[in-house]
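ok here's the first one, seq then struct tokens
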Amino acid sequence: MDISTLCIHGSDDSTDCTGSVTVPIYQTATFSHPSLGKSTGYDYSRMQNPTREHLEKVVARLEHGTDCMAFSSGMAAITALMELFRPGDHIVATDDLYGGSIRLFRTISEKNGLIFDAVDTSNLSQLKLKIKPKTKALFIETPTNPMMHVTDIKKAASIAHRKHALLIVDNTFLTPYFQTPILLGADLVVHSGTKYLSGHNDTLAGFIVTSTQELSDKLRFIYKTTGACLSPFDSWLTIRGIKTLAVRMEKAQKNAYIIAEWLRKHPKVKKVLYVGLTDHPGFAVNQKQSSGSGAMISFEVNSVETAKNLLERVKLIHFAESLGGVETLITYPSTQTHADLTKEERNKKGISDRLLRLSVGIESVNDLIDDLRQALV
């Protein structure tokens, strides 16, 4: 089944007897038992709920996974992932991660005894040097947030598996519509479902997709024990959002390419980072392992004053955190997504006070360019 069809019909409710074309919202905390020792298959919504189950099945199918767990946020999903590991375990992570992931690793996971090394995982020789006897996982984003580095997933999987480590891929930016890491060798895929999967900036969600039943069993136990499950209503909203994933990703990507080319020609824009541009360092790798480039652009302007003026002058584009919705959003990483890093750390990564991140939506591209034009003064 084509992925665009699967987005719409992958969550069809085969158990419904009413003819409803949408999955019902089972807004219940608990389920009654037919008799002692018997169950309908549902006992308590922290463990499973029919609405959430339909969502999990469609995301698992989209990602070609064995199982999927839906969480209350992307960070809740990554927090649960870290419970797979024990004190003393070593994890190698992409050095250009979403700031919330870095904050979690530094303030919570390290406190719990995990050891992290950050490296540019797009440089495979550097990645190999970071592997240690106690390395249990590689955690990568590709493309990265916000510097758009691209890591070769298949080669990273080979490096991890030779050391009996797991490969975890954050696939939030490209989604399974454009990239399916499990087919490239990843063991686990994580998403902030708040972003493209939900697609409308109206709910929070997170996902972990597993490649094996063994990983599923371990994470299901963590899931029911820690309890950060997605609510029935938010599950239903995300199911609804996924139905339009294909058309949203295609339109947003088309807009992003046009805007990236326009930005490159603007005299006040000094650098454009978009993996769909042929001169992007990761272009060839991204072309090899994905079917698209997505709709995330980072760009550097000529001065801090220009950056601040743009943020204050945009009208159609929203100055807001998050990404992946139908509305175009512009973000200032140095004070928003990566504010927890020191200025020295940000500058080392290229996250200067002149860097902006654009999540391109599905509006008219001409209207978006007009807004950028009047704001870039």
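and now the second one, same deal
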Amino acid sequence: MQVVRVIVAVAGGALVLVTVLSVTRTLIIPRARRGMVARVVARGVDGAFQFLVRRVRSYEERDQLLAGQAAGFLLALLATWLLGFYLGFALLLWPQTHDAGIAFRESASSLFTLGFVAPNSGGTTALDAIEAAAGLIVVALQIAYLPTLYAAFNRRETEVTLLDARAGSPPWGPELLARTRYGMRTRTDDLPAFYSLWERWAADVAESHANYPVLLRFRSPQPLSSWLVGLLAVLDSAALYLALCPSQERYEVRMAVRMGFTALRQIGSAVGLPVNVDPDPDQPLALSYDDYLAGVQRLLDVGFPVERTAEQAWPHFRGWRVNYESLAYAIAYRIDAVPALWSGPRRWTSEPIPPRRPATRVASDAR
């Protein structure tokens, strides 16, 4: 009987230790690594939401349902931690109370600081005090965790919202360049500043989303917006600009591409996706050549000043896109991002949504 008590106590201590490590790794240590508990909870919550939306064919309806995925994960993770403490301390109390029912009642009383069960010895008093502190600390840490997440979310979404006017909704790389057209002239002088801004945005997203992967589940307020599709559109526009206009090459454009695929690699590593840090620039793209030609034609239609033909620019564009395409597609598939042009497949069969463009409205007396 004594051996059984020792085994039960060891199991309870191990469960408490695993829970403490999970809380520490998730809420306190900013590192791009998730513990076992967080991974299991993430798989369970993601699976539940995928089951919930499996019959929904409309993307807008799926997006509305999936908007609760981040909250579901946070609540499930908190419940898992509290359950871990509850069971772990109950197993620690069991050998001292000699009654499983009393041990579990006392554990619940201490964890939620209800005080309806009094300890019967000095050992149980100490365990009750530690468990009460653990319950309060984990809830307080989770509450303090939320402002950090929402601050990162707000920083991310500000630039994504601004991108709507530049690149359409959902955003598309060729559309971004095409909309630099101003009146009857093409204006590109502000592009270096724009790409410099997105270089810093990508660095911010890399740091926040790799350290706090739950941010990947926070969806944009508008169904046709997505931080990932926005980043992909910016990277595609930069790759097209570098491939089609070699004389206009600027440091800011190249750095935006580099920081963009670096961000995707850091996020991919954090969520367990395979990352190729040195892709072959000659390997084929998932993007078809016909889709590429359609994007270039969009630029030609608005008179964008190109210096190479589409055929001449293709190897250069492919050499840039190979650095980020596979990871962008994999993350877009995982989070079910809006199915925009040039953004890869999704879990559900759906046609890519082209960018919506505002109608040209001119007052009758100004025509």
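notes on #2: The chain has a mean pLDDT of 88. Residues 253 and 358 are 27 Å apart (CA to CA).
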